[in-house]
Every structure is written in C-alpha cells, then in structure tokens.
Amino acid sequence: MRVKILAIVISLLSFTVPLNSAGFGAAGTFEFGREPSGGLTVDFELDGLPFIFEAEALFCQDGLKSLCGGVEFIAGNINLYKALNFFYCPELGAGYDFEDDKVIISNAIFAGLNGFFLPQTEFFIQAGWRPEILLGRGNVDFRFANFPVRAGLRFWTK
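Above: the chain's sequence. Below: its structure in token form.
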C-alpha cells in the first residue's frame, strides 16, 4: 500500500514540476563544536525546485554517531565571477543520535560557494551554524555550538 501511495505522489510531482535535470551529490562533512565529528552527506536536487534533500551520517571514535535527514531551501544564489556563485540557505533537519540515544531536531543557516568547473559537475563548499534540540527519555538537551562544514561534488543529468 505504501509503495502505491509513493508511486502516485512521484507521478503527480513529475507532472507539476518542470524538470530539466536533477543533481545527485556527495560531500565530506565535519562538525566543529562540543563533540567534533566527521562523516558523509549525500543529496538530491531538482532543477525546477529551490530545495536540496539530504541524508547525513556522522562518525566518532566509537563508530556511527548519528543519522540525519534535512531539507535546504536555496534562498539566494548570486553569481560572483563566471562559473563561481555565492549561495545562502536555511535548513530544517531531524535525525537520531546513537551516541546519546536521543532524537535530533535541527535548524541551520548555511553560506557557501558553488560552481560548474566541469560539464555537468558542480563543486560546492558550505559552512554554517546548526543549533540542535536533543530529545531523550525524560530530558531535553541543547547544542548551540555546532558548526558544520561540507565540501563535495554534485553530478547533474541533462
């Protein structure tokens, strides 16, 4: 039943969104803050929408630290010089912190650079501030000092 509903939603979106191309990307991620960690982010972007959908896995010394998903809204993409652009975007995210056994709810603001230096290949680097609310069993924790940095490539189908 869920597969049928998902197929219907995807079909309806394909008729309502003018798509010329789609981008699939991967980036290395590092978070500076109370508990520094590194990981991998994969994302998906449609040419007709100002959103980037992403999934992120962060690792610490003991293994997998957290899994998160998020949606970035590209609020501005300003051309600086030829193929180089400056962009800024807010992000909403949620996930699970395995290290602390807590649910993560986050809101972030990012700024960065992107550009097409090879055909159909976009390079991007971004940094931002991502405060998080951590919901555990009977307690709530806050991480205000959380500063992620991402750099990667996005490959476009045209």
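The first helix runs from residue 2 to 16.
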